[in-house]
Amino acid sequence: MAFALSNILAARKTIAGIADATPFVPSPFMTEKTGTEFLMKLENMQPIGAFKLRGAVNAVMNLPEDVAGVTCCSTGNHGRGVAYAAAHRGLRAVICMSSLVPQAKVDGIRALGAEVQICGKSQDDALAESLRLVDSDGLVEISPFDDPHVIAGQGTIGLEMLQARPDLGTILVPLSGGGLAAGVAVAAKAINPQIRVIGISMDRGAAMHASVAAGHPVEVEEVASLADSLGGGIGMDNKLSFALCRDHLDDIVLVTEEEIYHAMQVLFYEDRIVAEGACVVGIAALLSGKLAALPGPIGTIITGRNLDMGMFHRIMAGEDIRLGDTMVKGRAYGT
Ligand SMILES: *Cc1c(COP(=O)(O)O)cnc(C)c1O
Fold first, then answer.
1. Is any atom of ligand 1 closer than 6 Å to the C-beta of 27?
2. From ligand 1's centre to the CA of 9, what distance in Å?
3. How far apart are CA 190 and CA 172, in angstroms?
4. Which of 82, 168, 171, 302 has the highest CB neighbour number within 10 Å of its CB?
5. Tens digits of per-residue pLDDT, 159-217?
6. pTM for this entry
7. Atom number in ligand 1 closest to CA 241
């Protein structure tokens, strides 16, 4: 299926009034650090605390009248989006998640009235359960990233960013399954073909990075990360998000857990924003010097705020963080 700006313009109409247009605000600190204006699209302000509401609403609103209900696998935020969208339409929702998903996200989804199934240790295990429910209960599966309606919904972020700032030179996009990056890149490049769109992932378990490098979808080992929302594979039979990311992203850059840790402190202490590790990978890449001089102004997307507050407190206090089999060395901000 051809995917283009027209899909994203249609999505904008469908989601209007359910998923909100969000503020696009400057960061004085990052502007000074980078020497070019730096802006942040605050998707942490969405009703479910993450941008995934856009794609989920667009997908759910496009389902036929007589659908029995919906299911999905999720690292947390897509499940929350699907649960919210299903409740909006009065549909049953069953969200399948691996045991790596933080409890705060599980609780958030149950609070929206959806059923939650914890299955296995990876996104692949969760997906298998979701597909089983398609067969047994007649539910429709909504992919977190590999679905044209989902990608179109996420792409509305790119439309809003370019509408607010047609002069934008670069967009830094947190990258996992690539639904967000694909939609934003298609929207932004349709409006300004010169703009640079760069995907950023954590350096352990970056499935899209490994897949684009290999020229086809590959499996990566999923490990715990401060950027837990960026975990998971891209699907070995990926239909759309892989090709769109391969064709439309100018580069994919990886950051370490220590760089994510520091960038979370920067976003909180400098900009007073509470956000997930996944949101700060663009800031982390810039501060680590991993991005060569980029055309400005630079925009990034603060993708969500659904994090474990105990973990957040420990990072802000500069404590060490244990992630599965590794330790992220802590450091008090400004020392
Ligand atoms: C899902 C998610 C991402 C990555 O989006 P993809 O479309 O999977 O690349 C980034 N940040 C947050 C907070 C997310 O929930």
1. no
2. 21
3. 17
4. 82
5. 999 999 999 999 999 999 999 999 999 999 999 999 999 999 999 999 999 999 999 99
6. 0.95
7. 7
Query: Ligand 1 atom 14: the closest Cα is on which residue?
Result: 229
Distance 230 CA to ligand 1 centre (A): 6
pLDDT tens string 249-270: 999 999 999 999 999 999 999 9
Q: CA-CA distance, 256 to 306, in Å (whole number)? A: 21
Amino acid at 49: G
Which of these, 49, 55, 46, lies nearest to 22 by C-alpha position?
A: 46
Q: Which domains does the chain have, with CATH numbers?
A: 5-47+147-328 (3.40.50.1100), 52-141 (3.40.50.1100)
Give the pLDDT confidence score for residue 251 in this predicted structure: 98
In sequence order, which ranges of 148-256 are alpha helices (DSSP H)?
148-164, 179-191, 207-214, 241-248
* Residue 214 neighbours by CB under 8 Å, 6+ apart: none
* Length of the chain, in residues: 335
Would you list the DSSP string of 289-303? T-S----SSEEEEE-
Determine the average pLDDT of the residues in 294-319: 96
